[in-house]
């Protein structure tokens, strides 16, 4: 993979994080293709011999563009209390790797995230970290997210709710 | 002279009696939520004696299947034995107490302790000791060192419960009239309900009683906490919309709210479940249960001390589906709980419905649920504001008592209600809350000098 593409994709993720942390959710939705599959399966604790500790059968998010749009609209009501007063959030995205199987118009990208949230007067930050597996697709010469799988590192989530997008 | 500040007043019978008198007037001290002394008493005198939910039979299919659970601070290993029986053990090695099995679930023939290598079979029997004869000699009787069983394990319609008190009353008796309401969803279809996946788990800074109450008797919170869904046009704008139906107070602190549609609104028979399932319901339920189920939109309630259930019609995108979610509010201290949320659906339901109901659940309840996320925020706010000097004053006064008066002296029980318990003809009443706290006080009083 060439350095220029790596730079471009990193910029894409930083821009995405900026939109989410500045609560520009409608603009964030524009980064998603209309057929996006946005999922967050559960992490579970299993013995190594039992294989994967990601449970695809039960998830925290199972979203389409339409349902994500509904979520954003709900956040814009006057009574989405989990986000009003708005918590301060920080999406830190690192370890961005463009994977094999990528083509000129479609990239398979793996990244790590650390999500931090500060709620009202709490001095403690809530945090969630994990991995994202994305498929980015070029639409009208612009990268968009066509699929996202978010895998949390915790089997017991240390956040009060998932009112955010990851 | 003995001077006792109003904050160190001991938690004795006298104080409990005062609380009881206040409760009879519909008042309850705000510090019940967060007081550390009370929390200790609760662990000792409530969670050590009452039936706690451990899991559903459908989570354990084959012999050797196991799941690990908690009864507050007691780790529990729930296993299906070779004979198909379900057993529960303290998930702690009998040699030196190591947490034996730390995975959430799996399948095993033997449980081998990583510390010194003792191994136990599915029946909990000690079957292997590393260098046994050489170090312990012949005299060591393995039979005496089996895994320690949870004193009582009983099952009701697939729901597995444990009790740490060998003397506890039988589960069926403890559940009492609650069974009649549970049957409406547990027994309605052939094969009952089944769990999908594993329970979701997350941490909320609140007290277990707050969540128990919320599911147990608080349809009154729905129009405000979930106002966003009203603004979105998903819920009706009538502020009374979640009041229609009955709130039922049952023995042992259990309670149920059976909601129906607003007067004049379109009826969705049997919670919108497909017509092909109706003959099954008619076969499996009594005439009275069927009559109620036909009109029901939501059945929500709590089984004391820390299990709640919610069988609504919910979802998003205008596609509303019925499902069942079971909740364990595991206390992690006076101000913290670990929520365990199971998703269940009728085993006999068409596959498509199962899938849609699952999506309906994800979008409405669970940690990302657009309804639940606002609940968690509010639950945390209750605890946050109940820790201060004013709230903690143990002399009960206006400064620290809050309001559980809704419906008192105003709403009379509906004697024509066909189900067990005392049923009030609206859900905007605090009878269920007072029922919860009455039993809570009763158990606590038995442990206090
Ligand atoms: S503690 Fe389990 S074998 Fe020693
Ligand atoms: Fe709620």
In short:
The complex is a heterodimer of chains A (166) and B (449). Chain A is of the alpha+beta class and 166 residues long. Helices cover 21% and strands 43% of the residues of chain A.
Structure report:
Chain A is of the alpha+beta class and 166 residues long. In chain A, 21% of the residues lie in helices and 43% in strands. Chain A contains 3 helices and 6 strands. In chain A, a hairpin with a 2-residue loop joins strand 5 and strand 6. The longest helix of chain A is centred in the N-terminal third of the chain and has 19 residues. Chain B is an alpha+beta fold. In chain B, 28% of the residues lie in helices and 25% in strands. Chain B contains 14 helices and 23 strands. In chain B, a hairpin with a 5-residue loop joins strand 14 and strand 15. In chain B, helix 1 packs antiparallel against helix 14. The longest helix of chain B has 17 residues. At the A-B interface, strand 2 and helix 3 of A face strand 6, strand 13, helix 8, helix 11 and helix 12 of B. Fe (ii) ion (FE2) binds next to loops of chain B.
Question: How many beta-strand elements of chain B?
Answer: 23
Find the biggest chain interface. Answer: A-B, 35 and 42 residues
Bound molecules: FE2/S2 (inorganic) cluster, fe (ii) ion
Name the average pLDDT of chain B: 95
Helix content of chain A: 10-25%
The first-to-last residue Cα distance of chain B is: 23 Å
Q: What oligomeric state is this?
A: heterodimer
| Overall SS class of chain A | alpha+beta
Low-confidence stretches of chain A: none
Low-confidence segments of chain B: none
> Going across the major beta sheet of chain A, what is the strand order?
2-1-6-5-4-3
Provide the gyration radius of chain B in Å: 23 Å
Question: What features would you highlight for this structure?
Answer:
heterodimer, A: 166 residues, alpha+beta, six-stranded mixed beta sheet, 43% strand, B: 449 residues, nine-stranded antiparallel beta sheet, four-stranded antiparallel beta sheet, 14 helices, 28% helix, 25% strand, binds FE2/S2 (inorganic) cluster, binds fe (ii) ion
